[in-house]
Design brief:
The complex is a heterodimer of chains A (1043) and B (156). Chain A has 1043 residues and is an alpha/beta fold. Chain A has 7 domains: 7-126, Glutaredoxin, CATH 3.40.30; 158-359, NADH-ubiquinone oxidoreductase 51kDa subunit (Rossmann fold, 3-Layer(aba) Sandwich); 366-456, Ubiquitin-like (UB roll) (Roll), CATH 3.10.20; 461-558, Up-down Bundle (de novo design (two linked rop proteins)), CATH 1.20.1440.230; 560-642 and 983-1043, Fumarate Reductase Iron-sulfur Protein, Chain B, domain 2; 645-749 and 910-976, FAD/NAD(P)-binding domain (3-Layer(bba) Sandwich); 750-903, FAD/NAD(P)-binding domain, CATH 3.50.50.60. Chain A is 38% helix and 15% strand. In chain A, a hairpin with a 3-residue loop joins strand 3 and strand 4. In chain A, helix 2 (40-53) crosses helix 3 (94-103), helix 6 (160-168) crosses helix 13 and helix 7 packs across helix 10. Chain B folds into 2 domains: 8-64, Arc Repressor Mutant, subunit A; 76-154, Glutaredoxin (3-Layer(aba) Sandwich). Chain B has 7 helices and 4 strands, in the order H-H-H-H-E-H-H-E-E-E-H. Chain B has helices at 8-18, 25-36, 44-51, 55-64, 84-88, 91-102, 144-154; strands at residues 76-81, 115-120, 132-134, 137-139. In chain B, strands 2-1-3-4 form a 4-stranded mixed β-sheet, with helices on one face. The longest helix of chain B is centred in the first third of the chain and has 12 residues, at 25-36. The chains are: A alpha/beta (1043), B alpha+beta (156). The interface between A and B is large, with 60 and 46 residues.
């Protein structure tokens, strides 16, 4: 190494370094920090030997860098000057990289980043949204330079800020510049750094200390680690400048012992800086002397608190003490001490070199500059993200982070670790800055963002944080020591299903007191995760306490297997899948019928929330639960010819059910199973309700519905068709027929009007979704023109559009079907699968378009006047469309089908009925027992809730049956459904567990090709063969066996 | 393998380097622990004497910090991350599997002193969650089969 530099010789030395480094060679940059955990070392060695073998050492440099940021794709490398970015590289790729890419200039397709949405491959960093949308200032060198070589840092203008400070600025100038930049403490508190330095400068003392808090303890935060590992000199330079400003002689970097690479790189950096004269006596031959010592933490979260950190540096137990005196007055050894976080120091050289004005050019009014966030958890692009302060959280998670993996739903993001709070979906539009997040009980903190999806339980997350803070509480002050323990006990009780309803208020009470009365930051923030999850996810707490349900299907004491727990009717999924694996299909169908009398129907059209929670889905792909259900049911009907025996009638009191839809028939079926004589009154000549008239034939054939209704009838349920309940035949009439209880499951079959000018039901060519589907299904004559416009973005709208494509009639060949909806593709309520199928079949979908007016000519539909949509939902996430003014357009059509939703039709109830109704014209029922205000009358399903999913309708029917049974037995307790464990044979266990370990993707459902589909209404899905079904069934991980 | 007898010369050498130094307790303990894998209780008194502390102060610091152990640890220290990101990605079941495979509870060491099992608040490798560390090597994106192959690598 060169002898100590001076301010003058530094400039020449820098030129020398630059020349050394950029000698026109190829440079392969490979991350040797974070990526090491994923085999970067082996990749580097393979590349090195490949290069040596081909004698390319002179022309190809392999540079070991720090974190390049895109950690999700580790190990990664970039090849310059061509600028290629390769991800998930293995040692086996080394030869191709050297020969094909470097020697021949060919790009290796399989190593390129593929855009999540479009599937387009992107060879260079600047094309990838993850990098493109960032503003990397603090992380500028990270992943570019070799952090173990000070010359790299110097070549990248390193220590230029220090030289400037020493040669032309007074300490007051430095403090003024930093204050003017608006930089605020990046550790989380957000105190103005310049102001902090001013206090330390003004404290009179013979000796002052400068401390870098590198005890990054927040679980979920790793930006400091990346900076220390990837660009340690930047932090050191920032510290030296700060020391000059406040007049400190000695400094400490307090780094976590859990970060061995950071410690190693810091040790190297400090040594090199000393050798070149950046540290030690008379820095760069100026009058200023300063040196840094590295202190390793010993694993105590509380040491992130500044007074505790000071105690730990002094070799004591890391316990905080009351302030004042503040460290700026009396810190280490009673001397004035300034403590800043790693990222704060890393900003300093930038401010000095580029000026406060440049620095404050980005950010918000109150918070300037950029912030590094660490994205982790349930997000596609985990890694380090640097953006201007104030960027919306949504943009960070969805545009840079690429959204949530595997199509799952976002639930919340935890900001600021155990000291922060969660941000739920409705607040995603918030800017990530210090002040705004505090308004909803969260914080920006040190920048850790842990994303959670629908498969996380918020109560369990709160418990997790409390477990952490309880164990990290130093015990010095009572509120924190006892409060964390008390809160943890209550949270544990709730997650174990032993919670009490007043526990929620108790948690709030304790939490608020701990925050108010604790000594240090740990205690003053430890209750935040609890309070914020109660604030935003109170329903999850209540579900645990009142219903023993865990909506995320996580809590071990409540959940046997996540799929079963998530199924609204609680089908014992792993056990019936095991029966399929064993080849016992009839048994499988019977297991399903324990909870759901419609296996063949649900096997076709259920929206399968179970599959979203499937643990196999974490490994590779979720089990095809719905398709297996269909297989079992179809096999049942294929092999069992004998009609099943009716359930024995053990009860004397009779029950009436109104409506033979899925809810009514389910209710009747389970009442019959419990021994009650049941009669179903149905207005139409056919049963099945929506299933029969609202779901198109190509998704659910009539014959399937008929078979399942017949099965229910055979088990002893009497169904009276053509028996509408109305003014001539009222509920009172039914009561008089000696029915002890009545269940109303009349569905939601009234199409909603859009309510725009020109919407005249008598127009020729204007239809409503549900009646259209019914007419199609019943094969009635329908006029349909050449240009069909369907209005709506839900599943019914797509069913309508796809049916319209298939209807026979003149001009079918030229027919165009357009769907016009308010939402963007991502916002559409329809299922992704159905959207894709509709597009494949030739349906055109027009997004972000609203209807202003229906146009007509002489009683015939002529088209719509459209308006462009600005936004569909408000900042709270509520449906509240806004339009772009003067964006009207004409959309010609000769057939318009309105499909914007359905509502229950209460017109059959006499106006003077005593049944209590809501202002939305639905019945008032107790959500637990489904009882109305009149004893003995119950109601449920779409009739009460409005349209939902088939499985929810079935669940309501089952709940109704249980409620009526309890009512008739005089049992007034709440209904609680608890998952039950079933016995299974050892044979099944052995056979299955043998095969589950290796990766195996799920079996695809065979379908009719799109070009053959639209000719008629034949069913699209063909069903599994026996061989395929068993192959799929064997993929099940059998989570139920772990309990 | 049995618990090795402690080489007191080594302890004395470390202590002597730090004798009478200011604020040296934690670095000294870190060196002892690095050398022996734990802090032999027998070393508390000589350390206290060298730094002019009470043995109770030394003991207090040892028990305060998670890094220090007064019990011998295995050749390979497995630290399963219990950080938030690992937690939301199933870190709990990773710990369960490691416990089952090694037949150890957290804080315990196998009889042959091959493995010790601990949890850690966060390894700062959240992007690879769920993660664990064996001595100073990180392992990420863990799954049940992967854990088995990692552990096999370190078996005798």
């Amino acid at each position: 190494m060169t002898a100590p530099l001076t301010i003058k010789t530094l400039t020449n030395f820098r030129e020398e370094c630059k020349k050394d480094i950029s000698s026109g060679k190829y440079c392969i940059r490979i991350c040797m920090t974070g990526c090491r955990a994923y085999g970067a070392e082996e990749v580097k060695e393979a590349l090195r030997s490949e290069i040596r073998m081909r004698g390319l050492e002179k022309s190809v440099e392999i540079r070991e860098t720090g974190c390049q940021g895109f950690c999700a794709k580790a190990p990664m490398l970039t090849i310059d000057p061509i600028g290629i970015f390769y991800q998930e590289v293995t040692p086996a790729d080394a030869a191709d990289i050297v020969v094909k890419t470097i020697q021949n200039g060919d790009i290796l397709g399989h190593l390129l980043y593929e855009d999540i949405k479009t599937g387009i491959k992107m060879p260079t960093k600047d094309q990838i949204p993850f990098f493109k949308l960032q503003n990397r200032r603090v992380l500028k060198n990270c992943g570019i330079i070799d952090p173990k070589n000070i010359r790299h840092y110097i070549a990248a203008d390193g220590y230029g800020g220090l030289a400037k400070v020493l040669s032309e600025m007074t300490p007051e100038d430095v403090i003024g510049e930093v204050a003017a930049s608006g930089l605020r403490g990046r550790g989380g508190a957000g105190f103005n750094t310049g102001a902090k330095w001013k206090f330390a400068r003004q404290s009179p003392a013979d000796l002052k200390y400068m401390v870098c808090n590198a005890d990054e303890g927040d679980p979920g935060a790793f930006m400091d680690r990346a900076v220390l590992e990837g660009d340690p000199h930047r932090v050191i330079e920032g510290m030296i400048i700060g020391a000059y400003a406040i007049g400190a002689r000695y400094g400490f970097i307090y780094a976590r012992e859990e970060y061995p690479i950071a410690v190693e790189h810091l040790e190297i950096a400090i040594r090199q800086a000393r050798e070149l004269g950046f540290l030690g006596e008379k820095i760069l031959r100026s009058a200023f002397s300063f040196d840094i010592q590295l202190k390793k933490g010993a694993g105590a979260f509380v040491c992130g608190e500044e007074t505790a950190l000071i105690a730990s540096i002094e070799g004591k137990r890391g316990m905080p003490r009351p302030r004042p005196p503040f460290p700026a007055q009396a810190g280490i050894d009673g001397k004035p001490t300034n403590i800043n976080n790693v990222e704060t120091y890393a900003n300093i050289p930038l401010i000095i070199q580029h000026g406060a004005g440049w620095y404050a050019g980005v950010g918000t009014d109150k918070s300037k500059g950029t912030k590094v966030f660490s994205l982790a958890g349930k997000v596609n692009n985990t890694g380090l993200v640097e953006v201007p302060i104030g960027m919306s959280i949504k943009e960070i998670i969805f545009n840079i982070g690429g959204g949530i993996p595997k199509g799952r739903k976002f639930k919340a993001v935890q900001m600021g670790g155990p000291s922060g709070g969660c941000v739920p979906e409705k607040h995603l539009g918030m800017p990530a800055d210090y002040e705004t997040l505090q308004t909803i009980g969260s914080i920006m903190g040190s920048g850790g963002m842990v994303v959670m999806d629908e498969n996380n339980c918020m109560v369990e997350i709160a418990r997790f944080f409390l477990e952490f803070t309880r164990s990290e509480s130093c015990g010095k002050c009572a509120p924190c020591r006892l409060g964390t323990k008390q809160m943890l006990e209550i949270l544990t009780r709730i997650t174990e299903g032993r919670g009490r309803i007043d526990d929620i208020d108790m948690l709030k009470n304790i939490g608020e007191n701990v925050i108010r009365s604790s000594l240090c930051g740990l205690g003053q923030t430890c209750a935040k995760p609890v309070l914020s999850t109660i604030n935003f996810f109170r329903n999850e707490y209540e579900a645990h306490i009142r219903d023993r349900r865990c909506p995320g299907a996580v809590c071990e004491s409540l959940v046997i297997s996540a799929c079963q727990h998530t199924c609204p009717v609680g089908i014992n999924i792993p056990v019936y899948i095991a029966a399929i694996a064993e080849g016992d299909y009839v048994q499988a169908a019977e297991i399903i019928r324990e909870r759901n009398p419609f296996p063949a129907i649900c096997g076709r059209i259920c929206h399968h929330p179970c599959e979203m929670k499937c643990r196999r889905g974490v490994l590779d792909e979720a089990m095809a639960i719905r398709s297996l259900k269909r297989f079992a049911a179809d096999k049942y009907f294929e092999t069992v010819q004998e009609p099943p025996p009716p359930f024995p009638k053990t009860q004397t009191r009779k029950v009436a059910v109104i409506g033979a839809g899925p809810t009514g028939l389910t209710c009747a079926f389970y009442l019959a199973r419990m021994g009650y004589p049941v009669t179903v009154f149905e207005a139409l000549p056919v049963g099945g309700g929506m299933l029969m008239v609202g779901v198109p034939e190509f998704r659910l054939p009539k014959t399937v519905v008929q078979k399942e209704i017949e099965y229910i009838r055979q088990r002893g349920v009497e169904i009276r068709y053509n028996t509408p309940v109305n003014v001539n035949f009222t509920l009172d009439d039914i009561k008089k027929m000696d029915y002890s209880a009545i269940f109303i499951g009349a569905g939601a079959q009234k199409s909603q009007r859009v309510g725009v000018p020109g919407e005249d039901e008598s127009l020729h060519g204007l239809y409503y979704g549900l009646s259209f589907l019914r007419d199609v299904k019943l094969e009635r004559d329908i006029y349909i023109g050449r240009r069909v416009v369907v209005i709506g973005g839900g599943n019914v709208a797509l069913d309508v559009a796809r049916s319209a494509l298939r209807i026979h009639g003149s001009g079918k060949e030229e027919r165009e079907v357009h769907v016009v909806c308010l939402e963007t593709r991502d916002e559409m309520p329809a299922f992704e699968e159905e959207i894709e199928e509709a597009i494949d079949e030739g349906v055109f979908i027009h997004h972000s378009l609203g209807v202003k007016k229906i146009l007509s000519e002489q009683g015939n539909v002529a088209g719509i006047e459209s308006l462009a949509v600005a936004s569909v939902f408000d900042t709270e996430g509520k449906f509240s469309p806004t339009y772009i003014p003067e964006s009207e357009g004409i959309f010609p059509a000769d057939t318009i089908i309105m499909s914007v939703g359905q509502a229950p039709d209460l017109s059959f109830l006499p106006p003077d009925s005593e049944l209590e109704r809501t202002k939305w014209k639905t019945l008032v029922v107790d959500s637990n027992t489904l009882s109305t205000n009149i004893p003995g009358i119950f109601a449920g399903g779409d009739f009460v809730t409005g349209p939902t999913f088939i499985i929810e309708s079935i669940a309501a029917g089952r709940r109704g049956a249980v409620a009526i049974d309890k009512y008739l037995r005089g049992d007034t307790s709440r209904i609680v459904f608890i998952d039950e464990k079933q016995k299974i044979t050892d044979k099944a266990i052995d056979e299955q567990l043998k095969e589950v370990e290796e990766e195996k993707l799920r079996v695809k459902m065979p379908t009719v090709p799109p070009e053959e589909r639209t000719g008629d209404f034949r069913e699209i899905e063909l069903g599994f063969t026996e061989e395929k079904a068993r192959e799929e069934a064997k993929r099940c991980l059998r989570c139920d066996l772990e309990k | 393998m049995k618990k090795e007898p402690i080489d007191f010369n080594k302890i004395s050498a470390i202590i002597e380097k730090h004798r009478d130094q200011k604020w040296a307790l934690i670095p000294l303990l870190q060196k002892v622990q690095e050398e022996f894998g734990y802090i032999p209780p027998e070393s508390i008194e000589p350390i206290a004497e060298a730094l002019r502390l009470f043995p109770s102060q030394v003991q207090g610091v040892i028990t305060f910090y998670a890094q220090f152990s007064l019990k011998p640890r295995g050749k390979y220290l497995i630290r399963v991350c219990r950080g938030t990101a690992c937690h939301v990605r199933g870190g709990k079941s990773i710990l369960k599997i490691v416990k089952r495979e090694l037949a150890l509870e957290v804080g315990q060491t196998t009889e042959d002193y091959q493995f010790s099992l601990e949890t850690v608040a966060c390894l700062g490798a959240c992007f690879l969650a769920p993660t664990m560390m064996v001595n100073k090597t990180y392992f990420g994106k863990l799954s049940p089969p992967k854990i088995n192959s990692i552990l096999r690598q370190y078996e005798k």
